[in-house]
Amino acid sequence: MKINKNLILFISITFLSLIALSQAKSETNNTIKVINQTIEINTTTKGKPYMHFSNLCFCAGRANEGLRAGWQDQLKTVKENCGMKYIRFHGLFHDDMFVYREINGKPEYNWQYVDDLYDRLLAQGVRPFVELSFFPAAMSEGEGTTFWWKAHTKPPKDLSKWGDLVKSFTQHCVDRYGITEVRNWYFEVWNEPNLDYFFKGTMDDYFQLYKVSALAVKSVDKFLRIGGPASTNFTIDKKDEFRLKEMSHKKNLSLEELEQATYIGNWVRELLEFCKKENVPIDFVSCHPYPTHFPLDLGTPQNIDISRSVNSVKTDMNWVKKVVAESAFPNAEIHLTEWNSSPTLHDFTHDYPQEATYITKVNIDCIGLVNSMAYWTFSDIFYEENGAAWSIFNGGFGLLNFQGIPKPSFHAYRFLNQLGNQIIEKKDNYIFTKDSLSQILSGIIYNYPSEIESAIPISRDSVNFAEKTLNTGSLIHSTITLKNVKSGSCFVIEILDKDHGFAYRKWEEMGSPKSPNREETKLLIDEGWKTEKRFITADKSGVLTIELDLKPWAVALIKELK
Q1: 326 φ, ψ to 5°?
Q2: Could you give the CA distance from residue 550 to residue 373 in angstroms, rounded to a whole number?
Q3: C-alpha angle 276/280/286, rounded to 5°?
Q4: Which of 65, 245, 296, 538 is the Cys-Cys partner for 544 at CB 3.0 to 4.6 Å?
Q5: Which residues pair with residue 549 across a beta bridge?
Q6: CB under 8 Å to 217, separation ≥6 — which residues?
Q7: Which residues are paired to 35 by β-bridges?
Q8: What is the per-residue pLDDT across 177-228, written as a single tens digit (0 to 9) for each?
Q9: pLDDT digits 0-9 by tens, 522-546
């Protein structure tokens, strides 16, 4: 589905007007509003099963970056603290991995670089979520490339060579790692083929690519898992698009009116119908629900900074779940193989606490809807659209910056990783769990300001908007009572907010050095880890009472210690 630029324009004008009005109201009232909240939890309540989907998979830029020592070091950090189980990245078959060439028209394969990367991943306990992309130059047709490293996106006229490449690669993985291991992997066909930027072809062209790829993988072993379409963004259904245009001629649209429209996943329903018609296997559906009205940061007029409601990802996932359930493949898994608060590379919100709160809220809201939500990306060791960044904090996607300094988003996933596998209670801004074996209790409570109706406002190329939203919102005073806990048991309360675990502030105090020296770098890494920690003990009657003041965008982990 093509992006409608006129629709984007009128939605953007409406949205920016609402943001300006909201800011004007906020700046005229400096009084801090306090919301009182009382929570009582009976810890003996029978829990509901909880599958840790939030940390199942994380993303990286491209395969070749995984051969860097710093990338591997940061992978270890995220694995150990956030529980990463799979990783997905672009460019497995790109020319810098040297997998393919032709001699006198005859294909020749070389798996040395892929082997080196996969060996290192598996040694750390991380499995590949294989993205089958991009075309090797010797196979691609025409001049279609993307990124500064020129990924080839134009499919060959004869897809048989692609099918042979996919089959040979899959067989090699089985031969090297064993069928038992590779059956635990996922194979995804391409990346965001609905965008001309990534795929120089039509939807039908992609479906043929999917068919050839799926049959190639399944020819090695029928139990290997294949899926797609890995399409990006959800767009307004055409029937609502016409209605909104008519309404916009009469008045400015509200955010509520925009969100009442039906948003659909690009090529999701169509791929399922194609697979049914052509008898093509599909084991999972994948998509990229960035909560914006634009899918890429290309610097073009269509990329006006407009984000959707904070609830948009949950709404979109309900749509996908319904479409899959009603399809010929109702048992297909649902994987969000890319996801972030925005697809904008230099969005400074990515470096701020707002990102952590958004991550926390959306992951908790989407419990029971998806099998994984792969955060884009785990590291700022990332060279994609415009090459390397020129500052250590630049709005990059990573949980860790280039130097390995933890950002607030890192702690959001670290907190989520410490939840148990049974949900005791889940409400609007908190979740409490326990571990079915150890019976250890843990919970997360957060303050996503109700004053911010949209998804995290984008702060592109400047920290100004991120600074404004960081200081927007009410304080929540929460009184939490946990009943029937072990007498004398000790709990840690760990708080992430604008004053704790936010290394960006210390970097500013240093004068924002572009290349901090070794001592400065160590200090910044230490600062990034400095969340606030408190310890509290349950009374003799087995009651634990916690008083928390949560600043806007704060996230707190409450966990019982062994």
Answers
A1: -90, 0
A2: 26
A3: 85
A4: 538
A5: 477
A6: 166, 167, 170, 187, 224, 226
A7: 476
A8: 999 999 999 999 999 999 999 999 999 999 999 999 999 999 999 999 999 9
A9: 999 999 999 999 999 999 999 999 9
Partners of 284 in the beta sheet?
A: 227, 333
Q: Report CA torsion sign: 140, 142, 144, 145.
A: positive
Provide the 10 A C-beta neighbour count for residue 319.
Answer: 21
> One of 65, 131, 188, 338 is an active-site residue; which one?
338
Question: Which residues on adjacent β-strands are paired with residue 232?
Answer: 288
pLDDT tens per residue, range 77-93: 999 999 999 999 999 99
Report residue 474 as tokens: 């009410």
Q: Rounded to whole angstroms, how far apart are CA atoms 477 and 159?
A: 61
Distance (Å, whole) CA 167 – CA 446: 47
431 touches 421 (CB < 8 A) = no
User: Which residues are bridge partners to 460 per DSSP?
Assistant: 347
Residues 131, 188, 192, 494: which is the catalytic one? 192
Terminal Cα distance for the chain, rounded: 53
244-248's contacts with Cβ under 8 Å and 24+ in sequence apart are: 244/7, 244/10, 244/11, 245/6, 245/7, 245/10, 248/10, 248/14
Cβ neighbours of 305 (radius 10 Å):
21
> By the 8 A CB rule, do 539 and 487 touch?
yes
Q: Is 40 a catalytic residue?
A: no
Residue type, 377: T
Q: Which two tokens stand for residue 498?
A: 């604008």
As a whole number of angstroms, the distance between CA 287 and CA 266 comes to 8
Contact 296, 197 (CB under 8 A): yes
Q: Order across the sheet with 34-42: list the strands.
A: 34-42, 475-483, 543-550
Closest C-alpha to 410, from 335, 496, 343, 486: 496
DSSP bridge pairs for 446? 555
Which residues does 301 contact at the CB level (< 8 Å), separation at least 6?
5, 9
Residue-range domains of the chain with CATH: 5-29+51-424 (3.20.20.80)
309 backbone dihedrals φ, ψ, rounded to 5°: -60, 155
Burial class (CB in 10 A: 0-12, 13-18, 19+), 72: middle
Taking the CA of residue 528 as centre, how many other CA atoms within 13 Å lie in the half-sphere pointing to its CB? 25
